[in-house]
Amino acid sequence: MIRTVPTAPYKDQKPGTSGLRKKVPVFAQENYAENFIQSIFDSLEGFAGKTLVIGGDGRYYNREVIQKALKMAAAAGFGKAMVGQGGILSTPAASNIIRKYGAFGGIILSASHNPGGPNEDFGIKYNIGNGGPAPEKITEAIFERSRIISEYKIVDAPDVDLDRIGSVDLEGMTVEVVDPVADYAELMESLFDFDAIRNLISGGFRIAMDSMGAVTGPYAKEIIEQRLGAPAGSVRNATPLPDFGGHHPDPNLVHAKELYDDVMSADGPDFGAASDGDGDRNMVVGKDMFVTPSDSLAIIAANAKCAPGYAKGIAGIARSMPTSAAADRVAEKLGLGMYETPTGWKYFGNLMDAGKVTVCGEESFGTGSDHVREKDGLWAILFWLNIIAARKEGVAEIVRKHWAEYGRNYYSRHDYEEVDTDAANGLMDALRSRLSSLPGQSFGDLKVEAADDFSYTDPIDGSVSTRQGIRILFEGGSRVIFRLSGTGTSGATLRVYVERYEPDASRHGIETQAALADLIAVADEIAEIKTRTGRTGPTVIT
Ligand code: VG1
Ligand code: CO
């Protein structure tokens, strides 16, 4: 039986870079999740009788919201819902299931790399039929709807057993509980040379994969340990936990430091990898070498033909604006199209659908391709293993040779987290007001060539996204970029992205922060970071 429940709107349900993210106590307010889910359905058309995919990263509150979403999907008229067993679907696996089974769309419950638990973060995101994050015009419509919503519909029924694989009826809608791993593992096997990777591993190459107590655990165990034959225990923190075991499931040098230290130790593994809460990010480290995500994109693109799924070559490359230009040099050399988009995976979807690009990446530990429409952590890790197996070289050798051939883009991101919101907005406004006067000015040896607030016109549908980050471009290709995060849940996070291009191979061994020191100082001088935020330094450096 369908019940119509009166509700009052919440004013703060504006989706950010990747869906709606709030603390659990905010989501647990009366009708909060229901309002947002109904606002999603009210913003869509033509889904009667069609399939909706539902799954999440297993964090605290995942199962509760899945039950709500299932009962509301049934009331809204979906014909079928496919949900991962235990409520689990990594973000790339959900994207794959939407595409493979021709679903109308999907709801992914995740706050990605943010911590989980009763007082930590939760999130809801809608993905469209191509498997990718909803474009801005849909997220805008959802937000507009959430501001005036007055009722939602839900079926009265007992909870669905999420742990038993198979189909059940939910008041006229079929709910199919599916194995979350099988389709994804099959897809990976179709793209990469598993025989070559198996040989690499049986030859003694040691892998350590840290799933950080988050969603990739079961995926990595099946693929890396079962199908590729790595010894049991190669995948660490492999059980998805509601609080990620207290970890901050963000694969970077700060939060995956244990793994990094292990790989760097004398008798440590040859290859280290980690993924985030919902499985779309990756970190790759080798002996004596941390691979920056920007370099990773460039190296994957340059070596794509090593992998059977990309043997014919790639169509083009896209990167988010703050991501380093390392990939641009590969595109130039290979004669490929190169696209620069705003931050967030949703901007890559149209380019991939139109066949303009095959691989995409972001500096925030995100890499992926048109095999799905999300970034994909394990995909990137497997791509690296495939390249290592094909080239018979280690991570450090591959990276150094890449720099020697293309030059090195020194790169670092400095985050100032939980800054006072007014101070952060004031800093950005002040920068904006100086944009026209900066070109021509010199700061030490650095002369500003151009400065703007990045704006993007989608080449496929013509949609325009403005105010996507302040860019200060210096002569010679160095740059500093300022943006405010759109995924945080308290205060504001200022991100400062710093990059310098160094063509000279004899200067490729400098420590990154030292290589960028003058740019970092200029960033502070121009944006008045210390004085405006009251911070003496960043909270996280990646
Ligand atoms: C951050 C990253 C961005 C990424 C987004 C979602 O956004 O910078 O590159 O696409 O997170 O990643 P922001 O607005 O906080 O800078 V995930 O792994 O949360 O889906
Ligand atoms: Co993520």
UniProtKB/TrEMBL annotation:
Keywords tagged on the record: Isomerase, Magnesium, Metal-binding, Phosphoprotein
Span of domain Alpha-D-phosphohexomutase alpha/beta/alpha: 13-147, 183-286, 294-406
Annotated family: Belongs to the phosphohexose mutase family.
Organism annotation: Pseudorhizobium halotolerans
EC number: 5.4.2.2
Identification of the protein by name: phosphoglucomutase (alpha-D-glucose-1,6-bisphosphate-dependent)
Broad enzyme group: isomerase
Cofactor(s), names only, from the UniProt record: Mg(2+)
Coiled-coil blocks: none
Annotated catalysed reactions: alpha-D-glucose 1-phosphate = alpha-D-glucose 6-phosphate
InterPro entries attached to this UniProt entry: A-D-PHexomutase_a/b/a-I, A-D-PHexomutase_a/b/a-I/II/III, A-D-PHexomutase_a/b/a-II, A-D-PHexomutase_a/b/a-III, A-D-PHexomutase_C_sf, A-D-PHexomutase_CS, Alpha-D-phosphohexomutase_SF, PGM
